[in-house]
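Honest question from a wet-lab person: if I give you the sequences of every part of a complex, can you actually get the arrangement of the whole thing, not just the pieces? Trying it with mine:
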Amino acid sequence: MLHFIYIISLYKIIINCNIDLKKRNRREYWKKYTKDKSVRKRLNQKEIQRKTKIKKWFKELINTLSCSNCNENQSVCLDFHHVKPKFKQVNQLVRDGYSKTRIINEIDKCIVLCGNCHRIKHNEISEKNINSTRKTQSRRKWVIELKELVGCYNCNIKGYTRIDFHHIQKKKYGINYMVSRFSKTRILTERKKCIPLCVNCHRKIHNQIIEFKISDTQLADYWNQINESLD
Ligand SMILES: [Zn+2]
Ligand SMILES: [Zn+2]
Ligand SMILES: [Zn+2]
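Yes, you can. This is the full assembly:
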């Protein structure tokens, strides 16, 4: 009997070894296989092709959507705002080449909002907990007042949360970056190189969906007229 058990266990050990060996061989084979440059290239190409396919599919999908709040339907303006706990940003999933099912699962946790409405949504959430120095707070307030006053240069929509400063002349810093770091004078100098745009128009300009040219004189005139009513 003991003899029998001994033989069985020996047999098991041999089988296990064999499986391990197979696994190891396969791993080694795969390692060598993927080290081969031409194979690597082929695999990379396959991966790129897959990602391109997913991106194309996603682009078509997003073209059929619109903002659930204001109906904006320009795809570059649309964001996915999570209402259920998020795994990753939807765009990140697309960039990383996740499967369609995973992407759709993530989209199901979101509502579609345009850049403008998304800003307002997040502002509702985050406005209460801004902690910063008094100087920064006073500058932030000052920039907010200015944004509130100007509205979008292109579509005229108002409301400070929607407004960004888009550089017409050579950019040194973004205005939002400057608020917590530089004096009002320096911010003013930088601001004069910009026009105020809402998030949606800003994205449309950067994606060449709308275009307009502003000369240096037009820009100066614009701010002169604003300064009159601000200072
Ligand atoms: Zn909207
Ligand atoms: Zn959001
Ligand atoms: Zn606008």
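Two things worth pointing out. The chain has two domains: 47-128, 130-230. The beta strands are 78-82, 110-114, 163-167, 194-198.
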